[in-house]
């Protein structure tokens, strides 16, 4: 059965990547073993991890000033690990754009960090990205959630501030941000970069310093071991490498951003003209990857989600914190998926008004 999967993550993979995995599964590179069975100490895997790093470096035009780490534990582990490693004075700033920003704040506090909220859109129910001005006090870094998966907002451009730390979990490689003021980027792979189990950290090398942190939290040790201090998530890194190659072949981040803009515009244009559905996010703060909408009537929303499912448009239920619907249009979602969604929205609207 073929469906369009609008899940917020884990999310759909490009069809060509799934097909490659199928071909590789019985015997990876004529080794007689599947990728799930190979040793992380083998040349086979060494080639995969180094290839994935090179592909990521190329896609983001990363200079040698940055180190790439392939870790585990999700973005959630990094909420505390980042400040423990790089917040020298244990004092950071954070922009409160919703649930995941607050989770980052809570975890940093648990690690003994003072977190100043330097801007917030809470008073506007997180329907926009707030204006951010230069903080008065000196802060080790400023944490931003570039795309707010639950609230459906995103930074169109990064603010002109130094020492940014970005949670890119839900728009990594989906939007072409200028990275020159960025100290660190992190996110889980399960939305735009493959499957769950892999966490990416990209960090300016001069921030990787000796600490007495336990080894698995210690960037210096992890970097020295090329992310292989212990057994890495071999299959997830292999899948990420295939996704990175796919993205490179189709033209890289600027091209996928164009495509993401086309897909999301199609849906937003429909919602803006609809008499049944609405999206309450401020226009210039709209996410390209997570589109939240509702009819305003929970019963009708439920009916929509059920009917959509019957029509092979799956996982459109909104996050429990905001209700309604959410369509996640990550990199792997083809334009046809957005078209199918709009066709169905249209049909549902004409039958339920
Ligand atoms: N940050 C954002 C923006 C997210 O969307 C998520 C997951 N949905 C997380 C952090 C948490 O990620 P993980 O499950 O990888 O810990």
Automatic annotation (TrEMBL):
Pfam family, one: Aminotran_5
Ranges in coiled-coil conformation: none
Localisation: Cytoplasm
Pathway info: Amino-acid biosynthesis; L-serine biosynthesis; L-serine from 3-phospho-D-glycerate: step 2/3
Residues bearing PTM N6-(pyridoxal phosphate)lysine: 191
Comment on bound cofactor: Binds 1 pyridoxal phosphate per subunit.
Record domain Aminotransferase class V: where: 3-341
Documented EC number(s): 2.6.1.52
Superkingdom, natural source: Bacteria
A GO molecular function held by the record: O-phospho-L-serine:2-oxoglutarate aminotransferase activity
Keyword field contains Cytoplasm: yes
InterPro entries linked: Aminotrans_V_dom, Aminotrans_V_PyrdxlP_BS, Pser_aminoTfrase, PyrdxlP-dep_Trfase, PyrdxlP-dep_Trfase_major, PyrdxlP-dep_Trfase_small
PROSITE patterns: AA_TRANSFER_CLASS_5 (PS00595)
Assembly: Homodimer.
Protein name as annotated: Phosphoserine aminotransferase
Species of the source: Companilactobacillus keshanensis
Origin organism lineage: Bacteria, Bacillati, Bacillota, Bacilli, Lactobacillales
